[in-house]
Amino acid sequence: MQTGEGKISSMASPSSAVTLTKMGVSHVPQRYILPASHRPNTLPPFMNHHLPIIDLSSLQNPFLRPQTMDEIRIACKEVGFFQVINHGVPPSVMKGALDAAVEFFDLSMEEKTVHASDNVHEPVRYGTSMNQVKDEFQFWRDFIKHYSHPLSSWIHLWPSNPPCYKEKMGSYAKEVQVLQKQLMEVVLESLGLNPNYLQDEVESGSQVMAINCYPACPEPELALGMPPHSDFGSLTVLLQSCLGLQVLDHHNNWLSVPVVEDALIVQLGDQLEVMSNGEYKSIVHRVTVSSEKKRFSIASLHSWALEKKMGPAEKLVDQEHPASYEEFSFKDFLDYISNNDIMTAKRFIDTLKKK
């Protein structure tokens, strides 16, 4: 792991949302107060209980499979998002990962900042907000991110404290890696592609685990846990402990994603939008915060390997449907967010769209 430029020697100053909460601040510091146009609506969130929920066990039933594939196709095309139940990840493994996250963020700041860095290329990185070097405004979240596939190549770099972290988070990472391979196959099939299309890229691709803590916020109407954005990769599989995630619908309404027992959230990322040549769209989402609850989430972000370039699938490009996006790689995305303020810069995928 790199230890040079970008490594932070100390984050003990109150730049961490968790630290500020432990200090008992009664107001949000100025750097967390968003411009009025970017603040969350103070009205109660609109709960859309019609956001798609897919029963993956139905794919094993020849009578139910066609209908389930249609549901997946519609969810990918119209929303870019769905939840999955009967997905094969044991509830005990999901709970164990959340327990490990709670224990990690309960550690002292000194113990957590062993992994602190503002270099987005670090394979293990603890931080706060988004890009605290470039961003004018900060966000009410602490996180630890780490590469996770293949697990044997990265787990020795993960936190050794709390003692359960590697075992519990590692078990979850392995289960989700298996799940995302299955999900990619059905998503590709729903596009009319061979389920094994890009099999090597999927199996040898990157898995980045982002473990997030959104502490209770004294003035949640002024701040966000994360700003509106789409994920860079192919699929993101998300586990959330309570309400907070919101997705943007086609009418520019923010919809709160309900917590469904033992479900996992699947979000389409920029790579799938590009690969589908715009047939499917990556989902724009944000995270709101609460004055009462601390929220945890574990996002498993999947993409092709770091420097692997990808563009629209050849089968989805013809004279009537010319390629609408430039090729890009995970590294291109990391370079982009390293040099831009996520609040003011355009979405990364918009830089790839051909005129």
From TrEMBL:
<comment type="similarity">
    <text>Belongs to the iron/ascorbate-dependent oxidoreductase family.</text>
</comment>
<keyword id="KW-0560">Oxidoreductase</keyword>
<dbReference type="Pfam" id="PF03171">
    <property type="entry name" value="2OG-FeII_Oxy"/>
</dbReference>
<dbReference type="Pfam" id="PF14226">
    <property type="entry name" value="DIOX_N"/>
</dbReference>
<comment type="function">
    <text>Involved in the regulation of shoot development and salicylic acid (SA) homeostasis.</text>
</comment>
<keyword id="KW-0479">Metal-binding</keyword>
<dbReference type="InterPro" id="IPR050295">
    <property type="entry name" value="Plant_2OG-oxidoreductases"/>
</dbReference>
<dbReference type="GO" id="GO:0046872">
    <property type="term" value="F:metal ion binding"/>
</dbReference>
<dbReference type="InterPro" id="IPR005123">
    <property type="entry name" value="Oxoglu/Fe-dep_dioxygenase_dom"/>
</dbReference>
<dbReference type="GO" id="GO:0031418">
    <property type="term" value="F:L-ascorbic acid binding"/>
</dbReference>
<dbReference type="GO" id="GO:0005737">
    <property type="term" value="C:cytoplasm"/>
</dbReference>
<dbReference type="InterPro" id="IPR027443">
    <property type="entry name" value="IPNS-like_sf"/>
</dbReference>
<dbReference type="InterPro" id="IPR044861">
    <property type="entry name" value="IPNS-like_FE2OG_OXY"/>
</dbReference>
<feature type="domain" description="Fe2OG dioxygenase">
    <location>
        <begin position="204"/>
        <end position="304"/>
    </location>
</feature>
<dbReference type="GO" id="GO:0005634">
    <property type="term" value="C:nucleus"/>
</dbReference>
<keyword id="KW-0408">Iron</keyword>
<keyword id="KW-0847">Vitamin C</keyword>
<dbReference type="InterPro" id="IPR026992">
    <property type="entry name" value="DIOX_N"/>
</dbReference>
<protein>
    <recommendedName>
        <fullName>Fe2OG dioxygenase domain-containing protein</fullName>
    </recommendedName>
</protein>
<keyword id="KW-0539">Nucleus</keyword>
<keyword id="KW-0963">Cytoplasm</keyword>
<dbReference type="GO" id="GO:0016491">
    <property type="term" value="F:oxidoreductase activity"/>
</dbReference>
